[in-house]
Structures are given as structure tokens and as C-alpha cells.
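S1.2 Input.
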Amino acid sequence: MSAPGMRHMRDKVEQQLKPMLKMLRAGMLPHGRLLAGGVELVIAHYERMFRVMDERSTKLCWYEFCLTPEVFLAMGIQPFLGETHPSMMALGTPEVCWDYVDTAEQRGIPPELCVLDKFLLGALVRDELPRADFIVTASAPCDSSRIGYQMFEQLTDCSRLPPGRARGRLSGGACLLRQRDPQADRLPRGADGDTLRRGSPAGGL
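S1.3 Output.
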């Protein structure tokens, strides 16, 4: 049986975040009790994601910044915001982040690409990101992100709808949702909650 993914982050939760939480609760650090609530939320988020990864009891969505997780949580989908993961990995172990950046550049990624996207690509190659059922992106004014998510598409076998045709429709069980129809006041046909939960095709392309 293969080892579970995100091994380093699993160790980090057990060996760093949980001991840190005990110290904060005990008031051993300035503003410890105030900060403890935030650390509790971080631990709960990662432990819930690990369970979904291991049990595949629900769909797991990797979504881009400029989006919020509430829409996925409301449909019973486990969300994962890729762009916040590097900051958690850098907490106490910044050398790991640069290791992932080096991995990405060794794979031929241009050094000019944003360090966040290089981290994500390196971590993905090293099996340190969750294997999502689908990826959702937003219309963000970031050229590096647009390039990065096209590469993530290739590494994760997620099909990507080109801008202008992507109106929230799913294709092939996994996709990148690019744009929302500015004329629509609700999700377009084919992007209802049941479709996202199943990760099933919704209309021919």
C-alpha cells in the first residue's frame, strides 16, 4: 500500500502545530490564548483534509485565491486553497519551501515565475499537495497564476475550459472553472451542486 500523500504536512501538524497549540493554551507565549484559536482552526482544516484524502468520503476541490470556500462547504465538498499552503509550510521549516521551488526549476519552470506557483508545482511533483477531484480558478490579474494553473492541469489530469467557453460547466469529471457569466444571477446550467459533488460531466464540449 502506498504511503499517504502530504507526508511532510502530516508530520508538521503532529510535531509542530499541536505542540505549539499546547504552549499557546498554557499562556507560555505572548497573546497565546488569543492565537490558540487560529492554530486550532488550521489543525482542524488539515486533519479534515487528510481524512478526505485517505477515505475519499467526499469530493476534494483545489481552488484558487480570489474565491471563497463557503460555496464548496455548502455542497459538502472539502476545499483546499493552494496559495495559503506555502505560508503554513514556511512556518518553522522555510528550507522545505525552497526545496520545492528548486524541484520546480529542475523540472524546467522559468525562474521568473512567481515563487508561489513554483512552490505549488514542486510540492505537487513531490506528492505534498492533495490530489483534488477538480480545480476551480478565478479571473485573477496574475499572469504567473494563469500560467501555473495550466501546468497544474497537466500534472493532475484536470481538463481546462478555455476562457470564453468556461461558464461554470464541468467536463470529463474534473476541470478548471474559469469565469462566471456576468449576465447570470445564478450558477449556469450544468454547474449545480449535485454535479459538483459527483464530479460528473455536465454537457458536451
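S1.4 Remarks. Residues 75 and 194 are 8 Å apart (CA to CA).
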